[in-house]
Amino acid sequence: MTLSLEEALHNAGLPAERKEDGHWEKRFFFGEDFLGFAGHFPGHPVLPAMTQLTMVRLLLQEAIGSQEASCSVDALNVASAKYMRPILPGQPLVVCLRTGTSGRLLAEIHVLDEEGSHLASSMQISPVSFGE
To answer: Fewer CB within 10 Å of terminal CB in the chain, N or C?
Structure first.
């Protein structure tokens, strides 16, 4: 059986959590054999931007789904994205989602290690739903 990237992400993540201050978090862990590293780059795997965006979309889908069963997120409109550090296999990750400025959402991906949390990427996004 072959997994899609979305299925592989579901398997590598924990359920989303709403925090006391209202933001949402979802934790992920990817081993060296994670599908998202395939081909990017052979011998020096780095988590691609599209995989990071898919992680954010899945978190947003869980957050919205907990509030409105009829709402879905089919894609993301990305107003800006910054990638500050590569995400490598074996690094625990936390994706955070909060309301930002201009009606957009702010998504951040943090790498966790023994020294704390380090911002790996940030994006200003808005959800896109194609409806039925």
So the answer is: N
Counting beta carbons within 10 angstroms of the beta carbon of residue 98, is it exposed (0 to 12), middle (13 to 18) or buried (19 or more)?
Answer: middle
Q: How large is the average pLDDT for residues 48-60?
A: 94
Range of the domain at 56: 5-43+51-128
> Does the predicted model carry a pTM greater than 0.85?
yes
Evaluate if residue 119 carries a pLDDT over 70: yes
What's the CA angle centered on 92, arms 57 and 49, to 5 degrees?
40
Contact 91, 113 (CB under 8 A): yes
Residues in the chain: 132
pLDDT at 39: 75
Q: What is the mean pLDDT of residues 71-96?
A: 91
Q: Is 120 helix (H, G, I), strand (E, B) or coil?
A: strand
Phi-psi region of 9 (alpha: psi -120 to 50; beta: other; left: phi over 0): alpha
Q: How many helices (H) and strands (E) does the chain have?
A: 2, 6
Residue 122, beta-bridge partner list: 82, 108
Residue 103 maps to which CATH number? 3.10.129.10
